Structures are given as C-alpha cells and as structure tokens.
Amino acid sequence: MLIYEFLFLLLMLYIGSRYGGIGLGVVSGIGLMIEIFVLRMPPASAPVDVMLIIIAVVGCASILEAAGGMKYMLQIAEKILRKNPKRITLLGPLTTFLMSVMLGTGHSVYSIMPIISDIAVKNGIRPERPMAAASVASQLALSGSPISALVACYLGKEVLGLYPDLSLFTILAVTFPAVLCGVLAMSLYSNFRGKELKDDPEYQRRMQDPHYRELIENSSKTTLDEKLPASAKLSVFIFLSSLIVIVLLAMFPEIRTIGEGASPISMGIIIQMVMLTFGGIILILCKTSVSKVPNGVVFKSGMVACIAIFGIAWMSDTYFQFAKPAFVASIKDMVQAMPWTFAFALFVVSVVVNSQAATAKILLPVAIALGLPAPVLIGLMPATYAYFFIPNYPSDIATVNFDPTGTTKIGKFYFNHSFMFPGLVGVFTACCVGLGLGHVLL
Questions:
Q1: What is the spatial distance between Cα 121 and Cα 124, in angstroms, rounded to a whole number?
Q2: What is the pTM of this model?
Q3: Which of 218, 221, 252, 379 could pair covalently with 435 via S-S, beta carbons 3.0-4.6 A apart?
Q4: How far is CA 51 from CA 59, 112, 302, in A?
C-alpha cells in the first residue's frame, strides 16, 4: 500500500509541475487533503520554520534590490566578467555562486544571465558552456550560504539534539569548500563541451536570417551605463554586515543565550531576526521606496518559492512521516553498511520536490532515525540539489530563453538537456569533497 501511496505522491507532484511555481504548492494542497481524509495519514507539521526563514531572507534581499544594491553588485560582477571575457566559463558560474551564497537564494541569477550570454556570444564562446554551469552553480551554492533555508534546516533542534558539536561555522567549513570545488569541477568540464560556436549548426542556421544576424551583432546587454542612487553602495555594505552578524552569533553561542541555564536561541530564529532587522536598517538609512519592494524579481520569485515549498513539503512530509518506519527498516542495513548511499535518497526526493530545503525537511528525520554519522550527514548536503535532473526549474527555463544562439537547450528526449552533466559533475564532486572534509573536520 505504501508503494501505491508513493505513486500517488509522485502523480500529484507531476500534476503540480505542469503548472509550476505556485501551482506546485496549491496542487500539493489537494494531495495533502486526499492523504489525510482518504488515505487516513496523520498530518505532518507544516514547514513553518523554513517558510519564515525564506520570507525573512527574501524580504531583506528584496529591500536591497529596491535600494539599488542588487544592481550595484551586478555592475561590479559585470566589470570583472568583461575584463576577462575569455574566462567567462569559469567566472560566470563563480559569479552566480557567490551571489547566491551572499543572498541565500538562487533567484538573483536572472539579472546576470543575459550579461553572461552577451559576453560569450561577443567573444565567440558557446553560451551553453558558461550559462548552464552558472544556472547550476546558483543553486548548488545554497549548501554553502550562511542564510539559506537549507543550512538552517540542518541547524534545527532535532539535528543539534543528536549532533551537539554541529554549528553554522562547522557546517560551512565543510559545505562551502565542497560546493566551491563542485562549481570549479563543472566549469572545467564545461570548457570542453559541445562544438565551438562558429561550428554549431543551429547557430549557423539562425545566422542565415538577416534580422537575427543584426540582432546578434548589434545588441548589447549591459548594466554599466545605468546610473544608480548613492544609497545603492550603502545598502550592499549594510546587507553584508548582516552576514557578518549572523556568522558571529553562530560562532559565539553565549551571545544568543538569554537567561541563566537557558539554551542558545536557534540559528533559524537568529537568521529570521537579523534579516528582518537589517532589512529595516536598509529601508530607513537608504530611504528606500516601499512600493518598489514587491515589484522586484527577488520578491516575486521568493514568494512563489515559499508557497511552492509550503504545499510540497507539507504533502511530502505527511507521506514520509507515515511511511518512515517501513522506509527506515527497508534501507537501514544498506545505509549502515554504506552510509554514502543516503545521497541517492536525497537526490531522488530533490528531483521530486524541487526544493533543497524541502528535501532536508523531509529526510533529516529519516537520517536521524538511521543514526547517520555527522560527517556523512553534512558531507552529503549538496545531494539535496538534484532538480536540475528534470529541466522545469524557473532558473533553468530562464537560462534557455536568455541564450539567443540556441546552444543552451532542452533536448528532444527531455532528459538530454544542457544542465544534466554540469549538475551531475557539480553535485558528485561536492559530495565527494564534502565527505572527505566531513571526516577530517567533524
């Protein structure tokens, strides 16, 4: 019966994926009702902590965007990229990686992708090489971000109760270099993928169209000619200060211990408080227009992601909590003999739920029940990113549309798309490095 119920879960996720975004969340609500009132599963808790972190981080990042800070960061990135155009396949993914680490969300990729495409085309470089890797890097980076909802899940009470030596600092000491190595590995791989742009048949076919040729040769995507308010630079410094505050509070738990004999305030709550606080500071000191905040790309994408996670994680967690005893019993011997095989469970669930934070929320209780060692638990965190496998994630679809040459594409067979091998190389490398660092540092 559990197998049929799992197939029902997959069916609801598939139907939701046809609508995407908010559709994933609300269609999952239908599945949740059926699970509870038809299949008689006890409801799991809604992923409130994850959602609050996303709202707080997205809120602060959206105010940063409205203040011009995002565009200021983008201009700095563009200057670096245009000074080193021949290294765009390396620097493009590194740029999206660092922006996601700092912002705690991968949705900043939409602003930089047209620039990466423009630089690649103008220098005769196949755009697929930097663009596909840059899209993957923007999501893989969340394992190494101090303010991502994913990392906050690993700092929850249920995890720290079993692994008291874990902290934000010890987790990032493993995951940040691991995912950075993953990004470098897939950038190196991407340097050699596909035909050169001048030899690509689809590009040559498009260039036969005079209108298209003129569009390619005369158009230029840039942010450098845009004048920003003086407050843009200040907003970036304020935002970066928030990251420093979070890291310091993580390193010194005595600061967040209120009351004698009390436990330190959880890092999930700390992230929420700090992001709200610094969002307010940016709003006041930079005199940011509140009306601009909801109109930004980060706010819209972040709120859509929040609703999607709300439904997906609640429905999926209800099933996995119900099936956990049987699930744990069936894989316990294998995982205890070969702990690294838990990566496959993370990978598969991530493909299904399209969210790293939701994947962690669903499977961390299973990992705890299995008694997974801390080095393995943290080292395998990059495996929570696998939704590149089915190319329906917004950043991947946008990347395809931002490539005017047609080299970044979704193939006829759906799975033979531009993001598959960079994603596999990046996640595999990050997990291997993460496992190694985990056994050394944890």
A1: 5
A2: 0.88
A3: 379
A4: 12, 26, 10
**H-state helical runs in 67-123:** 69-83, 88-103, 109-122
Specify burial of residue 247 (Cβ count, 10 A radius: 0-12, 13-18, 19+): middle
Q: Which of 222, 147, 173, 140 is nearest to 428 (CA)?
A: 140
Question: 366 falls in which pLDDT band (50, 70, 90)?
Answer: confident
In total, the chain counts a number of residues equal to 442
What does the radius of gyration of the chain's CA atoms come to, in whole angstroms? 22
d(CA 148, CA 357) in angstroms, rounded, equals: 8
For residues 365 and 371, the answer to whether their CB atoms sit within 8 Å is no
**Residue 342's closest CA among 296, 389, 379, 391?**
379
Q: Which of helix, strand or coil describes residue 252? A: coil
Locate tokens 């709300």: which residue? Answer: 310
Distance, CA of 268 to CA of 127 (rounded, Å): 38
Alpha carbons 402 and 408: distance in angstroms, whole number: 9
**DSSP-assigned letter for residue 209:** S
CB burial of 272-293 (b: ≥16 within 10 Å; e: otherwise) equals bbbbbebbebbbeebebeeeeb
In the DSSP assignment, the letter for residue 142 is G
Q: Enter the DSSP assignment of 147.
A: T
User: How is residue 419 annotated by DSSP?
Assistant: T
CA distance 66 to 292: 6
Q: What values do phi and psi take at 397, rounded to 5?
A: -65, -40
Please answer whether residues 434 and 382 qualify as being in contact, where contact means their C-beta atoms are separated by less than 8 angstroms.
yes
| Tens digits of residue pLDDT in 4-40 | 998 898 888 888 877 777 888 899 999 999 999 999 9
Q: Where are the alpha helices (DSSP H) in 141-167?
A: 149-153, 157-162
Which one-letter DSSP state was computed for residue 417? B
Tokens representing 297?
Answer: 């790309």
Phi-psi region of 406 (alpha: psi -120 to 50; beta: other; left: phi over 0): left
